[in-house]
Amino acid sequence: MKSDRSMAAKFVKNHHKYPPGVHGSSSTFKKHTGYALQLLEKQKARVFYHITEKQLRHYYEEAVRRSGSASDNLVQILESRLDNVIYRAGLANSHPAARQFISHAQFKVNGHKVDIPSFMVKPGDKIAFAKKNKLKDIITDIAQNNHPVSWLKVDPKELEVTVNELPTREETEVPFIEQLIIEFYSR
């Protein structure tokens, strides 16, 4: 008898398209405040470049200190990190892979081994693969399939990258609005 009653129409649970709770239905179409939008953009940048809050704040302060547009300077600073250069050159399939290559001292900058992913490159710097091992073959295969950005000169056979110039805002594709990050930190 219990099973028959539980299948009756008045006992079937209704499924609603809003979250559970007293206030579930009222918060479905809430708009974000200006602060929330700025915070979301800042978090997108942190996740995209795999950097900490302290690093991003330091980069913001450096961008404001430089002459010119602070938002363009911020993107330029973020793009000139060594891990990002390795990724943009096509020698790694992702930012975390590039960070791991660098932290394991797989690359040299101007002849010196560098194991700091946040190392800032300058125009004219030469980045080369440091070791002769099986990893070189793997990275060579990755480099053959990827296309580097215009501000880098890449030799995929020798695994050498030359930084011709620092990127401009028009040359970079980033999934966030850097102006909102500048507004967030300038409060």
> What is the terminal-to-terminal distance?
66 Å
**Stretches where pLDDT falls below 50 for ≥5 residues?**
none
N-to-C SSE series? HHHHHHEEEHEEH
**In the CATH scheme, what's the topology name of the largest domain?**
Structural Genomics Hypothetical 15.5 Kd Protein In mrcA-pckA Intergenic Region, Chain A
Q: What coarse outline follows from CA principal-axis ratios?
A: globular
Figure out the total of helices.
8
User: Structural class of the helix and strand makeup?
Assistant: alpha+beta
Q: How many E strands?
A: 5
Q: Biggest sheet: strands side by side, in what order?
A: 2-1-3-5-4
CATH class placement of the largest domain = Alpha Beta
Task: Please tell me the CATH architecture of the largest domain by its name.
Answer: Roll
Mean pLDDT: 87
The helicity comes to 40-55%
What number of structural domains do the residues give?
A: 2
Please tell me how large the radius of gyration is: 24 Å
Largest sheet: 5 strands, antiparallel
Structure description:
The protein has 187 residues and is an alpha+beta fold. It is 43% helix and 9% strand. A five-stranded antiparallel sheet has the order 2-1-3-5-4, with helices on one face. Helix 4 crosses helix 8 and helix 5 (82-88) packs across helix 6. The termini are far apart. The relative contact order is 0.15. The mean pLDDT is 87.
